[in-house]
Amino acid sequence: MYDRILVPTDGSAGMGGVVRHAVELAAFHDAEIHGLYVVETGRYSTLPVKTGWENLTEMLREEGETALDDLRERTGDVAVETVTRDGVPSTAIVEYALDADCDAIVMGTHGRGGIDRLLLGSVAERVVRASPVPVTTVPVSDHEMTAPTDETEARAPE
């Protein structure tokens, strides 16, 4: 059913759960993962930057490479292709999904609410609304979530 699964990353610490979900889905379908990091240069274009715009862009690209390296390390035996693009994240994610003929998108959502959501918006929500392919959102947190081990089993609330 799925041959190519897109996993956009912002480099958040909580992306481990998102990548694990995508890897399980890819392994089940014998699919490859496409990792995407979007350099949102437009957000910073009006800031006064003493060291120069080129240095800021280079720093953002380095952050992207670090995020994509982390994604590659977490994919294990699943084939992965990574790319960095410039632009508005939600638009770039949907465009890449179309360009690379992806069958699904697995992405994190920070679950912001209230004023943060009003001011920052939700990339995941915009992707869900605009994507022509299925989108699975996985909650991320500020710290890495760990899967239960044999010693500690996951329990449903009683």
Give your account of this protein's structure:
The protein has 158 residues and is an alpha/beta fold. The chain has one domain: HUPs (Rossmann fold, 3-Layer(aba) Sandwich), CATH 3.40.50. Helices cover 40% and strands 20% of the residues. It contains 5 helices and 5 strands, in the order βαβαβαβααβ. The chain has a 5-stranded parallel beta sheet, sandwiched between helices. β1 (4-8), α1 and β2 (32-39) form a beta-alpha-beta unit. Mean pLDDT is 81; it is low at 145-158. It comes from Haloarcula nitratireducens. It holds the Pfam family Usp. Residues 139-158 are annotated as: Disordered. This is Universal stress protein. Belongs to the universal stress protein A family.
In short:
By secondary structure, the protein is an alpha/beta fold. The chain has five helices and five strands; from the N terminus they run E-H-E-H-E-H-E-H-H-E. It has helices spanning 15-29, 53-74, 89-99, 114-120, 123-130; strands at residues 4-8, 32-39, 80-86, 104-109, 135-139.
Query: In the CATH classification, which architecture applies?
Result: 3-Layer(aba) Sandwich
CATH superfamily: HUPs
Tally of individual domains = 1
Mean pLDDT, as a whole number?
81
CA-to-CA gap between the ends? 36 Å
How many β strands by DSSP? 5
Sequence of strands across the biggest β-sheet = 3-2-1-4-5
Please give the count of helices.
5
